[in-house]
Structure formats: structure tokens, C-alpha cells
Amino acid sequence: MAPIDRMADPATLPPAVGRAILESLGQGVAVFAPDGRLLYVNALARRLANGAPHHSLRRQLLAHGARVVSLAGGDVPLGEAVFVAAGAEASTLAEQERRVILDTLATTRGRLVEAARRLGISRTTLWRRLKTYGVTPRAGVSH
Predict the structure, then answer these.
(1) Residue 27 — pLDDT band, cuts 50, 70, 90?
(2) Helices 93-107/123-132 angle, 10° precision
């Protein structure tokens, strides 16, 4: 086995190894490019999305309680990964909506305009929902 300081750069791993890792996680995974294009979805995420088209796959997974992780290589945004546990669901529609809004705000680093765009709602609606959930956006956040 190679010493840790001489291990291969992850960028040189064959794509099949990356796919095998994502399939073996035991949770649903979808990977999106910075522009929102779907790059990868494993079998569990496909099943949880229940045949949702690519453009609404992220929203469908978030409705199942998924968490979003921003992907970056240094300062370069690479997109995001959406992880959802098998059988994980929020119990009420309001809880699902709140989770989706907060995850989207986290993904957009608090940029309200971008969050509203990704959610497909107006900024006013986003502000109303935040007020309903008792969430105050950080000072200096664009709106």
C-alpha cells in the first residue's frame, strides 16, 4: 500500500471507482453541476425520486429530507451533492418546506435572490416563509 503522502490524486481515479463509491454509500446520492445539470444519480436516489424528471429531481429528494452539500475545488464551485437516507421523510408538509428552504439558503450561502430562483418562488414569498419559520437572514445578505 502506498504511503498516504504519495497516494494518487482523487482526480486521477477512474470514473468507475467514483460510481462504485457513490453506489455503496447506503443512501441516495445525486450530483449536480454548478448550473443545475444532473451529473449523477444512484439507484436509491432514483427510486426515492419516484421517476421525477431531471429538472425536478433535486426538489423531490429534498422533499424526502435530503441534505445538500456544496462541492468546491478550492475557490472553484463544482456543484452540489444531495444525500438522502433510505426511508427518510419529514413528517409534515410544513417541515418539508422549511427544510428545503433552509437547505437551499445554506447551499446559496444565504443569497436570497439565488435561493428564491432555485426554489422557483418570488423573493417576497421567500421572505414571508422565512418570517413564518422565525428565520432572520444574516445582515448584508442580498434580497
Answers:
(1) confident
(2) 120
